[in-house]
Structure formats: C-alpha cells, structure tokens
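From the methods appendix. Each design record in this collection lists the tokenized structure first, followed by the designed amino acid sequence. Records were kept in a plain field format so they could be parsed without special tools. The example shown here is representative of the layout used throughout.

RECORD:
FOLD TOKENS (143 positions):
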C-alpha cells in the first residue's frame, strides 16, 4: 500500500503535500478492496466537501457486499464502486461452490444504500452509474 499511498499523494499534490508542485487532476487506482480503498482515501484529509476519514468509514460499511472500489481524481475526489453480478464476485474469500445471481432488487437496494451514505451523509455531489459499465457506480465530490 505504500506505493498506492504515494500515487494518491502525487495525484492530489498541493492539497495533500501542503506545497506547490506537480499534481494530476485525472487519475484512478486499480480496483481495490474496501479495506484498501478506506486506507487510501484517508491520505486526502480534506478537499472541498470531501473528508477522507469520514469517507473511509462510509466505504467500510460495504465490506463484503461490493466487488471493488477505485479511488482517484476527476478534478475533485471520485470513487467508483463495482457492484457484483454473482454472490461469488463479492470481495472476500472465493467460495468453492458456484455463486448465485444477485437479484436486481438486491442490487437496487445496495445502490440506494450507497446513495444514502455518500450523498446524503457525506456530501457527494454527483452519484450514478458509469457511462460504460452500469454496474459501476460513480461518486464525485466538488471542490
């Protein structure tokens, strides 16, 4: 995780390092576990309405229920949460038996829980499916 933390620090540059210098206004980590993503968002303590420690706690609420989380920057902080199609695609140990398809109702309920935590609770300003992968939810905070 040390390299991942450095990656995020460089990407957010002055906002994290407290000095002028290089930054990337557009970057994204590879898919991470909720534990890894929660650790990385803490690297950015505050950015506009984004609060790293609070967002980390929000991410942890979905441990074992999502496939992965990506963290980065699209001008401001952004998360992408991948929803699983099958129960064996949820993060965690891979079961020996084949998983069951997750009903749409259950996926829709998970999306509403994500919205409640990140929009209503943590001030994200944009929330919705990715333009390409509809089972990936984009959550974005404005500066």
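DESIGN:
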């Amino acid at each position: 995780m040390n390299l991942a933390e450095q990656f995020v620090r460089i990407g957010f540059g002055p906002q994290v390092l407290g000095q002028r210098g290089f930054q990337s206004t557009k970057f994204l980590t590879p898919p991470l576990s909720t534990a890894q993503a929660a650790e990385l968002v803490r690297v950015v303590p505050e950015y506009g309405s984004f609060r790293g420690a609070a967002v980390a706690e929000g991410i942890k609420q979905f441990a074992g229920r999502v496939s992965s989380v990506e963290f980065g920057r699209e001008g401001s902080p952004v998360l992408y949460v991948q929803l699983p199609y099958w129960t064996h695609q949820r993060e965690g140990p891979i079961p020996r038996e084949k998983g069951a398809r997750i009903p749409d109702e259950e996926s829709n309920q998970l999306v509403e829980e994500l919205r409640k935590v990140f929009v209503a609770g943590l001030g994200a300003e944009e929330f919705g499916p990715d333009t390409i992968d509809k089972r990936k939810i984009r959550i974005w905070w404005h500066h």
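APPENDIX NOTE: Strands lie at 26-28, 46-47, 50-51, 68-74, 76-82, 126-129, 136-140.
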